[in-house]
Amino acid sequence: MGDILKKHRETWRHKKILRDIYRDWYAMIVGDLSAGKQITVELGSGTGNLKEFKPDIVSSDVDPCDWLDMNFDAHEMPFHAGSVSNIVMIDVLHHLADPIRFFHECERVLEKGGRIILLEPYPSIVSWFVYKFLHPEPYLAKIDYFGRTAVELKTDPWDANVAAPFIIFYEKEQQWHDEFEKSFRIITKREMSFILYPLSGGFEYPSLVPEFAISFFVWMEKMLRPLRKIMAFRCYIVIERK
């Protein structure tokens, strides 16, 4: 995993369109953080880029990396009860073996008013085809996360199910509310990211957008917002501890 992350750090340094996209995402996330006085923790920090925008964040991942602050399993976080104000996760939830167990762990560590901020894949009409047939991570639509059957399918931190956020927060939203009604409320849930990120190639592929045209595609991204249910590649979810 370390070799992959080192490669991603090098990509980050040399790929302007990627930095522009994430800069906007990071600004959105920082603006939605709880104002609590406890620590803010990023899970699955990977390349650790969020620290460039919020230096006091505690960066972490399941495996140790020289540039990160901590390493631990998100299902068993090494924090005292009520000692965390925010948990930030970018493309992490769909890698977790047992997301429901993870949210119960968040119940424990988050203070009242603390927040979980998620940025995850979203299968719109357009992006479903990409996630199902072209994406390197699997799209497994039949996993019953609330029935705890997911653990049997997951053995490695890089294993994933791109469908997990959609299953939990869209298809099975009522079950999520029933499970966590006393603990959490969803204060933001929206679909976003239409063409810019897919065309950027992400961390793995070359960008299809030349640098001189980035501003045009940023404008196009804004114009496509009314079509988010049809074209979105991402969902952004903010959950608050009651």
Give short descriptive properties of this protein.
single chain, 242 residues, alpha/beta, Rossmann fold, 7-stranded mixed beta sheet, 9 helices, 7 strands, 35% helix, globular
Structure description:
Helix 3 (99-109) links the parallel strand 4 and strand 5. The protein is an alpha/beta fold and 242 residues long. It has a 7-stranded mixed β-sheet. 35% of the residues lie in helices and 19% in strands. It has one domain (2-241): Rossmann fold. The chain is globular.
What number of domains?
1
* Shape estimate: globular
Class based on secondary structure composition and strand pairing = alpha/beta
What is the average per-residue confidence, as pLDDT, rounded to a whole number?
93
**Could you give the order of the helices and strands?**
HHEEEEHEHHHEHHHE
DSSP strand count: 7
Please give the radius of gyration in angstroms. Answer: 17 Å
Strand order of the largest sheet: 3-2-1-4-5-7-6
Name of the CATH architecture: 3-Layer(aba) Sandwich
Low-pLDDT windows of residues: none
Distance between the termini: 36 Å
For the record, what is the CATH homologous superfamily label?
Vaccinia Virus protein VP39
* Percent of residues in beta strands: 15-25%
- Largest sheet, strands/sense/barrel: 7 strands, mixed
CATH-assigned fold name: Rossmann fold
Instruction: Give me the number of helical elements.
Output: 9
The helix content, as a percent range, equals: 25-40%
